């Protein structure tokens, strides 16, 4: 079954390039395009895509607010934010708004396609180096909005706390397994347990929770 995608970007050449890359794959279909956030919302309602490639700076309604509205409306579409390094602060806010990951606009075609497939499969995209830059630069300024964070953390075992710390560093399941000297299957189980106990949708939200709850501090 094909993965369906909506592309939201205010630059026609960018949209055309993304469409060309994605439609070169047998299992990916671009079902809609949008040049602003409001069009993106309409396209998602009309086409119910698996993934939305969302630029941040767009006219009428920016990608950040569009992402918030999609998540608030309960859309199952997974949002992949497209950005450049000079938009780090907006990326962090987009992740807090409910995006499932982000990708730099200079990513390779292979990275873009892999990201789309990953999100469509229900996982999240965490590029460790970029994620750390975002959190270290802007995490300190984020207010602690979850006063029940400590209570939620208390539901985790010591090993699960350790897993959450590693998740917050952007490690994959396989990397967590190597770090903890356990099998990949055990690592996957630990990660699933952490997300379930904390009532989090994906790995991106686990990173945000780790910092907002005070478990980790930027730069740690």
From TrEMBL:
The keyword Isomerase does not apply. The modification 4-aspartylphosphate is found at residue 55. CDD domains: LuxR_C_like, REC_NarL-like. Keywords: DNA-binding, Phosphoprotein, Transcription, Transcription regulation. Residues 149-214 form the HTH luxR-type domain. This is Response regulator transcription factor. It holds the Pfam family GerE. It comes from Blastococcus jejuensis.
